[in-house]
Amino acid sequence: MKKIHSITFLLFFLLFQPFLTFVWSNTMLPQLHVEGRNLKDPNGNTVILHGFAQTYSPFFNEVGKYWSNYDVNGCLTYNKGLIDKMLSAGWKVNFIRLHMDPYWSNTPGCQGRYEGEECFDETRFTKYLDEVFVPMAEYCVSKGLYVVMRPPGVFPDKIQVGDVYNQYLIKVWKIVSNHPKLKNHPNIMFELGNEPIDILGTDGAYGSNGDAKFANLQKYMQVIVDAIRNNGSNNILWIPGLCWQQSYSGYLKYPIVGDNLGYAIHLYPGWFGSSAGYKAFQSEWDSAIKPIADVSPIMVTEMDWAPEVYNSSWGKSTTGVVGGGGFGANFKYITDNSGNVSWLVFTDAAKLAEFKDEAPAAGAPYNFLNDPEACPWQTYHWFKDYANPPVSTVTNLEIFDGMLKPIVNNQTIQISAGSNAYILVRATYADGRIDFVSSKANYQSSNPLVAIGSAGRISALKEGLATLTVSYGGFQKEISVKSNYFLLQSEAMNLTMFGANTFDNNSHTLHLTQWGQAGWSFPNGIDLSGYKYLVFKFGSYNYPWGSNIVIKDGSTESIGYKWEGKNELIIDLNNLVTETGIKISPNHITAVRFWSGGGDYIIDNVYLTNRSDASQETTGLEIPIIKSEDDIVDVFSVTGKLLKKQIRRGDAQKNLLNGVYIIGHEKVLIYR
User: Among 168, 431, 544, 617, whose Cα sits 20 to 30 Å from the Cα of 298?
Assistant: First the structure.
């Protein structure tokens, strides 16, 4: 395995530059390229970049305080000065997102959309490309910064293949990619556009998800890529997704074709479920970003956070803690675990340039730059650690689940086959540091056909048993894994498909909010082709209005299966069909979900079977419900009368007469 470098390449390439061939001889930065899912340097090392952004307009440069009126020298002096101040302050950055702001290319006085193509003047753009953007890019490279150039403006709310904005981007990138100082420059990359939202799909509707939308998004972006490549330019290109650069999973089926391609995403507090804590954040990342991150490098080109009181960041949140609430710590943990995500802090460079690595005096209040709950303080120190990783002896290793509950050595955890369980690996060092090292730990499985481990997760592939060994710093821990399909446990279910739904592990009651959707998600896909039936057994004949169960393969959905007047539903897996009658193969199921107008379901059992009468087979892998005396349960008579409510299991049988009762969803015979 190649060592991952968060690079400060100066010394290394002073030593090795004679053995490298670069297009440009005036730079000490190595030329990067895309290889599989990673950025690579010429020696095959994986590279992850960390940086900041600049926008060259008076408004974004302290509202015209230092320059205005198309003052080229004033713009260059101001922005070069900010870079110098940042580097002098100790910021360990190695890339910049350079916005070719439409201030320079728009026709003065034009009444069209400022961020749009309506006011674009090709002559002005070409002039200021030479006078502003190219000189700034060259200066950045001279300071050891890779450059990601972004075109003027922002996508309109709705786009369609071949529209005027599509043609505008083609025009801009033909000019830029053919510029003699930019074309094939080893340290300059292009981000094709900023924040597309909805596209007209092949189904005739606008939207940001699904096959119909990505089939056309592929065409929209491919023609821009082709225009650049037809110029003979092989610069690395970063492709945006839909929904303000949050939606990417469709690119897996409809990829952009070519070499040196990655995907640029935006990520702010509240996006990707991040406001609901680590587990929701990780789950949404896995759904929207991980599919494409598994095959291509990712660059986060907008991201920041700070408490709202400072009014100094785009994103409003706190750093928080890994595995808990807040945004920043979980963002870093998730992107570190991906292993191929470059990212920047989108905070105003003028603020970052004023940073001092000094905590406030005792009793003094925090400010935006020195508050550990805001992004400048944390990213400054994280970037330093990326550039020069601290070295110390590990003195302890701990493992937690996705809710920060400790996992003790040899503890058994239960995972639905085809899904993931999140684990957080934490090391304590001799120098007193405590850090999450999930991305650095080693994972070995005793049965990799059943379950495997990777950075921060256990992936269950099929039903069975396995032991996962997690090793780091001379310590190792073992986790016993039992994998079954359709576990009736809240932690094994996806309760936020739509709405804030809940599942009670004791009563097996699934509660759906109005129009709620919940069930099981299988990010890895599960193959059910070896079974005849999927069977649901319910504890009541009552059910919410509109109840149905849908089976999904990616974005392809089956009809809604219903069970009116019954307490069971038997789904024939060999005859799954969509509403239009298209057959769905059971060999790659990604979700099984409940949907209704809202209400409760009591689910006794869910199982797969090959028996002709749809009865349950004995697999030897049945997982007993682990009961505790401290569980809170309800007690019913066999006729359904509630006798005791929300009582400790250990106290549930007190004062009951001999007979049969339902205690915590289990039949119990009392005979004294």
Answer: 168
Rounded-to-integer distance, Cα 109 and Cα 101, Å: 16
Q: Which two tokens stand for residue 511?
A: 């509660």
Closest CA to 189 of 55, 121, 65, 94: 94
Q: How far apart are CA 370 and CA 364, in angstroms?
A: 11
| Phi, psi angles (nearest 5°) of residue 632 | -95, 125
If we measure between CA atoms, which residue out of 492, 483, 528, 522 comes closest to residue 510? 492
Which DSSP category does 28 fall into? -
Taking phi over 0 as left and psi of -120 to 50 as alpha, with beta for the rest, 295 belongs to alpha
Give the DSSP H or E segment for 460: strand 457-460
pLDDT of residue 627: 58
Is 60 exceeded by the pLDDT of residue 129?
yes
Confidence band for 667, pLDDT divided at 50, 70 and 90:
low
Above 90 in pLDDT, residue 595?
A: yes
DSSP 338-368: HS-EEEE--S-HHHHTT--S-PPPTTPPP-T
Percent of the chain with pLDDT over 70: 93
Secondary structure (H, E, C), 521-586: EEEEEECCCCCCEEEEEECCCCCCCCCEEEEEECCEECCCECCCCCCEEEEEHHHEECCCCCEECC
What residues contact 363, with CB distance under 8 A and at least 6 apart? none
Residue 20 confidence (pLDDT): 29
Domains observed in the chain: 4-387 (3.20.20.80), 394-484 (2.60.40.1080), 490-609 (2.60.120), 632-670 (no CATH)
Whether 171 contacts 122, CB under 8 Å: yes
**Residues 234, 162: Cα–Cα separation, whole Å:** 23
Average pLDDT, the chain: 91
- The letter for the amino acid at 643 is L
**Contact criterion met (CB below 8 Å) for 426 and 435:** yes
List, as one string, the DSSP characters of 477-524.
EEEEEEEESS--SGGGSEEEEES--EEETTTTEEEE-TT-EEEEEEEE
**Do the beta carbons of residue 8 and residue 388 sit within 8 Å?**
yes
Dihedral sign, CA of 486, 490, 491, 495? positive
Question: What is residue 88's three-state secondary structure?
Answer: helix
Is the Cβ–Cβ distance between 22 and 31 less than 8 Å? yes
CA 140 to CA 344: how far, in whole Å?
15
pTM for the full predicted model: 0.81
pLDDT at 622 over 50: no
DSSP state of 17: G
Helix (H/G/I), strand (E/B), else coil: 183 = coil
